[in-house]
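Structure ticket #2291
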Amino acid sequence: MSGQAQVAAAVGAEVMPGPVPGAMMNIVIGGHVDHGKSTVVGRLLADTGSLPEGKLEQVKALCERTSKPFEYAFLLDALKDEQSQGITIDAARVFFKTAKRHYIIIDAPGHIEFLKNMITGASRAEAALLVIDAAEGVQENSRRHGYMMSMLGIRQLAVLVNKMDLVKYDQRHFEGIVREYTGFLEQIGVHPACFVPAAGREGDNIATRSKRMPWYHGPTVLEALDQFESERPALDKPFRMPVQDVYKFTAQGDDRRIIAGTIETGVVRLGDEMVFYPSGKKSRVKSIEAFNRPAQTGAFAGQAAGFTLAEQIYVARGELATLAHEPKPEVTTRVRVSLFWLGRQPMVKKRDYLLKLGTARVPCRLEQVHRVVDASNLSASEAKDRIDRHDVAECTLKLNRAIAFDLADQVAATSRFVLVDEYEIRGGGIVREAVADQQSEIREKVMLRNFKWEPSIIPPERRAEKYSQRACLLLITGSRETVRKTLAKDLEARLFGDGRVVYFLGMANVLYGVDADLGRQEQNRSEHLRRLGEVANLMLDAGAILIVTAAELTQDDLEIVRTAVDPDRLEVVWAGDPVTTDVSYDLILGDQEAEAEGVERVKRLLQDKGVLFRPW
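Resolution: structure written out below.
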């Protein structure tokens, strides 16, 4: 029995040692525009009997009536038109089957402006089929698609040299394309399983061997696909599960908190000590929950799973669940990455983008460009300070809060990310290195604190329900001339009068209390802020709304506080004109508002953010 099979058997799951008839494999298909991908896919559907009954004859009859020559690519259009009738096909995915297994082909359109589909398409694929027109030869997108597939970790690749009928099935012409494209792929560390000379329109070497190319003795396209090995769940890697959601139940005294997600790698068993990053919080697995399934003693990679924990701890979407006895993930706000950029506007510094990695969603900025590569010819430049469309770049990204991840050469599944700009995916890539940041030392202390934390038997939800509020740290900052304390104390009085659990904490209370052993020198600023965060964390754990005032907080200051407390429980108000630092804020109050209307506006902010529960 293989190592993976032994591990899976130990948690009550069976893993077959080889491909299973009827199993599913995802294949991404790429290639330059008009190199015949749609024709190849249509031919695969027809030749494997995967079309709805009578569909082929129907499309052929329609072409005859309209005096159009029949093309196998028309089959895809015909099926797309019938989605409403229950046909299982869409613009990006096509289903077909062989005697060995079922396939999903994920299309990566050849037009350059549609290359962004490669990010989400190829990241789900186990293997790739790349189509090259025999007459046109290797083109820009042929090379770009090969490069991007290699970046996304797809190592199983078959190259289909299509339209061999246009070059009269010439062997030397085929071999020239093989030499050229093999030379390119070797430079990026990709070794294709085979090159198949084919003619999609005529069916040569698609599902059946061609008599027009007796010189070719390799597999047909279908045989090449069937020779690919299905990926087995990564059971031998450290346990990793991005937290998708936390489900809470209150009916009939059910107080379970089920932490749910899809396990990317590894195995977890009942009683295992689980640690969540970037927070560092820990607890033991009490139960493994599944809908309409018998009780499980374990769960493994590839499964969607839910867990309850022995201690009630606050865990949020975006955290990464790991096991205490296994290697830790990386945690930082700065990452060195390899990314490709597909946005029409270049990626530039001083602009915010949204990074999505696993279930984490975090704003980021381009901090430094180290090297830019043209994926179509592998030329490199180290003189650029932006990333243009179709560039592949090695660069450092600065995140506005820490996330947990792995490096691409260790756990690929938790290293891949996409970048969103103006609600559209504009780029994506893999994390190569975790770069130290200013908060690394503080973060280690906070993670140790969370690891050793003794949680209350009263969960946060019960406190929130009791107090009709969510715990929150409200930082009120502004220029030194702004009367911040008056606003904070008036707000405290107003919320207290409304029955809220609220407390105002002046910085002097901290400086001359828990910070009495520290001097007022600038080099102690980080430690002052860390200790403020620790005091705030205690108040937040008690379910309170804590109001703190501080003069001219910077973004670096804010990130230190964010390291010590849950960023989702932090709101920032800038009081007064003008804004004199780079701090990111949730609300700005002008001088007059800070004096007259400030309390009402801050209260509305807290209501809009769900801190103050509105009455039904």
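Closing remark: Residues 386 and 555 are 23 Å apart (CA to CA).
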